[in-house]
Design goal:
Two copies of one chain form a homodimer. Chain A is of the alpha+beta class. Chain A has two domains: 227 residues, Creatine Kinase, Chain A, domain 2; 84 residues, no CATH class. Helix content of chain A is 42%, strand content 17%. In chain A, the strands form two sheets. Chain A has an eight-stranded antiparallel sheet. A two-stranded antiparallel ribbon of chain A has the order 6-7. In chain A, helix 8 packs across helix 9 and helix 9 packs antiparallel against helix 10. Chains A, B: This is Protein arginine kinase.
Chain lengths: 332, 332
């Protein structure tokens, strides 16, 4: 299932496993004059094999893709934002849109699995299978001491980044989020706002991921991340219950006002939409706001992103804000 | 009709005529040791006569009225706020609640007619009739040079204050209201915010009234006030059309957000309610917000006033704000 579709997850929104791989004896993308040959090689390794899994992918040459369509893919988290820029890049996306293989990002291959909810083991197992299919035809750059070699040394080793997207409105509201960030950090786990600058996280969505790729096996990383995520789930749950029990009137008023604004506003910016939709998510999760939305608030958040909201049309920022308000108003 | 009931007036909300009268050869209320005798005299003058008009009044002894009920009367504009305090005061109110005769306010008699909409002549004619009924049995303090004598010299002469309540959101939003206030002032017409302190008028409701009671006849005052009110109506209409034509998106978004907030908020203060309801009034008048309210926004504004919203119950400020939000949410 596409991670953001019909997603009514309370706290853990989605899970992502990303593997960085490079073709042996070939310069990394930033040092590669022509990416065609390597791209063909990897494309054939995936699409040309006998695996049913691999046959499921569609190849998209990003050089021939309009910018707005690339931005849409980035907003769906199927490619990273840097893939929207530069030349010689491409991506293979599975028909169910849960797997993507970026070519010529920072590394030759960035294989990524996204699942809705909390599913690290399942996502890792799927990533491994796709990784094996590719490895049948490609020799990876690998060092017996260091493991998988990558363009940036922070990825060397397993080449794996495991991350979990969490909705943490109560920890943010009660200002406990900074304590969470620093204590996770001391365990080698990074917590960062998915949107917004500095400490402000629009939508109260945070990405929790491993910082370390060297010296720990994949399963050790996943175990450690699982423990930290479970602890944060516990803290967020307690913070939500406290808000509901001790501050019901204030919190219900705030969440309903956000709901009312989204139900009636005629123009909403992207950052405001995220904040208000986060309130609706919290309100529905606490049983304060009825779950009557045609589209779950998280899906509204993704579908109202700047490129996706345009639906292929060229819109000015004002027109986009009106279109976003309309989309949310009709579906929340 | 009660001035605020089913009142969908666009700009001129209501009209009020107030006459100040005193009983001849009797100290003004502030110098009167015992108000009983004068009160009885006036009460009998009104209720004891043969006039059908006068028979219509109910007598309320404010000494035996709980404070909250007195505050309700003040919020309905049937008594002035000072009538809630002190001893020896009473009021006679007509069954249709458009006429009230306050006894022992600043003067022995403050006769007041309130009509919905713009109806200065009609209100004055009714005030004169009631005035005549009282004068059949009471000799007023009257001087051939000065006219009716009153406790405060600013009322001496006709003893009449004619005023019109206007909803001026567009002139306020475009900051033209200060120009209106000063140019009306130069004509002896006072414009003041009905609610709020300083220049801030919650609800964008203004009271436009004559400052002069001496040297002009009643009909001259009414004619002058009519001219000024018509000019302000014209200015407000132009300002509204300009907002709608030049700033439709911004204004529609703002007005709908206010509507959405009132439709969903769980707690609303009195001043916020007035501002948001003023937006809904403007939105409905401009045809932006559909007129689907069970109770017109102006009526919601009055019914959600601090005392009226309590509906006879003792409520804390927090409970009142919740009750107000509920009342408006269910009726707007």
């Amino acid at each position: 299932m596409i991670w953001y579709k019909n997603n009514n997850s309370d706290i853990v929104v989605s899970t992502r496993i990303r593997l960085a791989r490079n073709v042996d004896k070939t310069p990394f993308p930033n040092a590669l004059k022509d990416t065609k040959e390597v791209t063909e090689k990897i494309k054939n390794a995936v699409l040309g094999g006998n695996s049913t899994l691999a046959k499921d992918f569609d190849f998209i040459d990003l050089d021939n893709t309009p910018l707005i369509r690339k931005q849409e893919l980035a907003e769906e988290h199927l490619i990273s934002p840097v893939m929207c820029e530069g030349k010689g890049k491409s991506v293979m996306i599975s028909k169910d849109r849960t797997m993507s293989i970026m070519l010529m990002e920072e590394d030759h291959i960035r294989l990524q699995i996204i699942k809705d909810g909390f599913a690290l083991d399942e996502a890792y197992s799927l990533a491994s299978k796709v990784d094996d299919v590719i490895e049948e035809n490609i020799t990876y750059a690998f060092d017996n001491d260091f493991g998988y070699l990558t363009a940036c040394p922070t990825n060397t080793g397993t080449g794996m980044r495991a991350s979990v997207m969490m909705h943490l409105p109560a920890l943010t509201m009660t200002e406990n989020i900074n304590r969470v960030i620093s204590s996770a950090g001391s365990l080698g786990i990074e917590v960062r706002g998915l949107y917004g600058e500095g400490t402000k996280a629009y939508g109260n969505l945070y990405q929790i991921s491993n910082r370390i790729t060297l010296g720990l096996s994949e399963s050790q990383v996943i175990e450690k991340l699982t423990n930290v995520v479970n602890q944060i789930v516990d803290m967020e749950t307690k913070a939500r219950n406290m808000l509901k029990e001790k501050n019901y009137d204030v919190i219900a008023d705030r969440l309903f006002r956000s709901y009312g604004t989204l139900k009636y506003a005629r123009s909403v910016s992207s950052s405001e939409a995220k904040s208000l939709l986060s309130d609706v998510m919290l309100g529905q999760s606490l049983g304060i706001i009825p779950k009557e939305s045609k589209i779950a608030p998280l899906e509204c958040m993704v579908l109202s992103e700047p490129a996706l909201v345009c639906d292929g049309k060229e819109l000015s920022p004002n027109e986009r804000d009106k279109k976003r308000a309309e989309l949310i108003r009709n579906n929340i």
